[in-house]
Amino acid sequence: MIATNNTRGLYHRLQVANKLLKRSHDKDEKIALSNYMWDLYHSMEQVSSREINASEKKIFGSHKNYQKLMRRFNLYKLKMLENLVKYKGFHSDFLRDILDVVEDDTSELDDREFADTSILSEGDFYTIFFDFMKKYHLEKLFDEFVKEKRIYKVVADYDNTLGFILFNPVNQDIDIFVKDFFYNIYSLFVLAHESGHAYDFIHFDGDISAYNHYYYQSFYVETISKLFERIFLDYLFQNHILGDEVNDLLAEMEMNNYDYLLSSYVLSLLDDELLINEKYSTLSHQELINRIKKYFISEEAIGFYIQDDIHFDVWADFNYTYGNVLSLYLKEPVEEEGFDNAMMNDFLKERGRLFTPAFLEKWDITPSGYQEKHSRDMKILKK
Ligand SMILES: [Zn+2]
């Protein structure tokens, strides 16, 4: 079995993390471990579909400790929001131009007919993923996940994420969670995405302060995971594996990317004060429209941008948006030279920093450059 729903391994992780936390005197370590333990509890709930009573006291030692940690998290968040406000003008110009160039490509995807999903044998599922990882010399990592039963089946309908990963930055423990795991292309795709996070995190080499900054403040956390999505789909396409389904998945990926681009763009148009205090989430649909209508030619045009069910989350929206953009650029050197290439090495070195436009300028990342690469990819879709 490639995926398990036995939570024993997770319970063990929890005990190990708790010991590390009790021994630690490092502020960054404590933050990372506490957050990891909190997530572990919730992952156990999702794997077993049973409620687990995890009190703040149980995880953080005392309510006071919990409050101290929350203050710290809020500081990270504030830094991220201040950074967003600082470059708001840049984001709105950049994202509007990217939206313009992908609009035509993406609008055609809406009325696409999707192929049926094939059910693979366990052996074929394993081989497809193993061979993909082998192409990038990462097959050992995947084998470790399987042999040590680190891939979990998530059954609870918790939220709309397809999967997630838990990483203990102090001892490098990793577990991968795939929602509705099944031997099909969707679970393969989620596995590729989460393997990207695994690759990313293990390359922090124990610098926990940098890891925390990266994880809570930057807009780059979804870059390598999105890169893995892209190189995995290309791998399947080039090897004629699951042909039509690969096209469908690429189409779905593009539509998702587009939604995140829209949300990020709308956020970049809001007033500083709304962003810093995160008041945007309490605005009604109409209030939201009123706030940004000066940027559009008509209310009709805004209606397209702000759907009734729009939900904003700065962290997720900006991470997926810039992850999408950066991964499109990282894909070429990785496919040509493997992971050890100049752009990738630079990314790994710089990713813990806060967002700056210079980060994009350095690699000549522009809306027109994005368009060129994007339309090349989209041509594959037109069957
Ligand atoms: Zn992710």
Structural class: mainly alpha
Strand content: under 5%
Number of helices: 18
Please state the average pLDDT score: 90
Biggest pleated sheet: 3 strands, mixed
Which small-molecule ligands are present, each listed once?
zinc ion
Number of strands: 3
Radius of gyration: 21 Å
Runs with pLDDT <50, length 5+?
A: none
State the distance separating the first and last CA atoms: 35 Å
Helix content: 55-70%
Output the helix-strand order. Answer: HHHHHHHEEEHHHHHHHHHHH
Shape: globular
List keywords for this structure.
binds zinc ion; mainly alpha; globular; 383 residues; 18 helices; three-stranded mixed beta sheet
Nutshell version of this structure?
The protein has helices at 8-23, 27-48, 56-60, 63-86, 88-107, 122-135, 139-147, 185-202, 208-217, 223-238, 243-268, 272-276, 285-292, 299-305, 314-337, 342-350, 357-361, 367-381; strands at residues 151-154, 163-168, 173-179. By secondary structure, it is mainly alpha-helical.
Folded structure, characterized:
- It contains 18 helices and 3 strands.
- The protein is mainly alpha-helical and about 375 residues long.
- The chain has one domain (about 60-150, about 180-380).
- The protein has a 3-stranded mixed beta sheet, with helices on both faces.
- Helix 10 (about 225-240) crosses helix 15.
- Zinc ion binds near residues 193, 197, 222 and 225.
